[in-house]
Amino acid sequence: MTAVRVPVSAIAGAACVFGFAPFYAWPVPIVALALVFHLWSRSATPRDAALCGFAFGLGYFLAGVSWVYVSLHDFGGMPLPLAALATLLFCGYLALFPALTGWAAMRFAPATAIARVFFAAAAFPGFEWIRGWLFTGFPWLTVGTSQVPDGPLAHFAPYAGAYGTSLAVTLVAASLAALFVAGASARGRIACAAAIAVIFAGALAAGIPEFTHQSGKPVTMALLQGNIAQELKWRDDMRVRTLEAYRRMIFDANARIVVIPETALPAFLDELPPDYLESLRAHAREANKDILLGTVERRFRGNDYEYFNSLVNITAAGGGAYRKRHLVPFGEFIPTGFHWVLAILHIPLSDFSRGDASQPALTAAGLRFGVAICYEDIFGEELIRQLPAAQILVNVSNDAWFGKSLAAEQHLQASQMRALETGRWMVRSTNTGASAAIDETGHVVSRLPPFTAGTLIERVVPYEGLTPYARWGNAPPVVAIVVIVLVLAWRRRAA
């Protein structure tokens, strides 16, 4: 039977991707997880369950994260065979986490099918949480995020974040799987159906309270999307054209605050022509604008330069800067022992320094901004460290590295989760998309078409207050996961 279960698990994993942007089919991951939980409950050994879990994970991540290949080969210059192998190995690493879920459900849960599916329901988001910090973390495609913005279970996000929402998803999936467990009693099936109803009813009730409130008048923001092709960005013949394109967009933007994407200008901040920066500052003074520029800062320390991926207010006195703290392995820093990779990859500025763990809020137009650069906004517990000071969240990114793949839309959905978790607007300025304004409920209010140059102007509302998730972080869902796992493991030992 393993020969059948493994490909079925892989198909179920691949199907999960339809729950995420741009498809937003939130019920699909619930059904797919119910299927793999059912297969785990029927596994003969922990090894069989691990194989099914690995197949599920490989299908899941090959379908959902294969855009890594585009970054490595198309823009990083890695030869095709090596890029394909690196992508496969990366997805294989990510697949280890659902494999461990299946193995643990067989190894530690009581020897009943229902106990196994509910052990798996707790272990799955537990291993997602581990994936979110191990080796600097990669919490991409957390199943809870698939419920944002319109799935009923997304209402748990302000209380328990993405992982708490994942736990709600897996508990519903486990209850659904348990309905079809062979030998289950009528009472047991009724209890599982009731559990599904209670979780959804609880989600709808959870959506009623409002933990944050408006803290000032809306501010008009311009989110720039330059649409500079990644392969052209650093060419000398494109430098002047890029600078002029962004200056024209800044001058034309009828807004109080203008946001320019991550590392938008192909030069260090201190190497920009002095007359260029002064022209921007003069225009800002005349038009009463604040300009938030995604740029590369550098400072000389010791015998060499340090480089920072930054968002800088280049106009307001004391407006300050935010320096990226959570860097992308191999893209922004090379892990110890892997500097030989630089001989294969051709990625400019791949050795940044980390910004300070604690940084004051970036200010503009008298408002305080919580900043996430690039994929920092997939780390919910890191972003809430900027609360309660931050009234608006801003993300600047350059997802041009991933071409016309699912990456940019999936990244947008992660920002939607952060907005819902914190009860604050999130605005995104990106090079090629998805540039958007997201309200405090996680819904996209407006956005620009991808791979077009343009400016998105939106009236953004500042908020203050703390959601339970912003107050407590991931601790409550992690504690709940640990309690469920330990109780079921104890029952196995006591049996």
Q: Name the helicity range.
A: 40-55%
Radius of gyration: 24 Å
User: Count the helices. How many?
Assistant: 15
Give the termini separation: 28 Å
Question: What are the segments in which pLDDT stays under 50 over at least 5 consecutive residues?
Answer: none
Strand content: 15-25%
How many β-strands, per DSSP? 14
Mean pLDDT across every amino acid position: 92
Structural class label: alpha/beta
Strand order of the largest sheet: 6-5-4-3-2-13
Helix/strand order, N-terminal first: HHHHHHHHEEHHEHEEEEEHEHEEEEEHH
- Assembly classification: single chain
Outline, from the CA principal axes? Answer: globular
How is the main sheet built? 6 strands, mixed
What layout of secondary structure does this protein have?
Blueprint: H1 2-16, H2 27-41, H3 46-65, H4 67-75, H5 80-108, H6 113-131, H7 157-178, H8 186-206, E1 213-214, E2 219-225, H9 230-233, H10 236-252, E3 257-260, H11 274-287, E4 290-301, E5 304-313, E6 321-323, E7 362-364, E8 367-373, H12 380-383, E9 392-397, H13 407-422, E10 426-430, E11 436-438, E12 444-447, E13 454-460, E14 463-464, H14 468-472, H15 475-494
Parallel strand pairs: 2-3, 3-4, 8-9, 9-10
Antiparallel strand pairs: 1-14, 2-13, 4-5, 5-6, 7-8, 10-11, 11-12
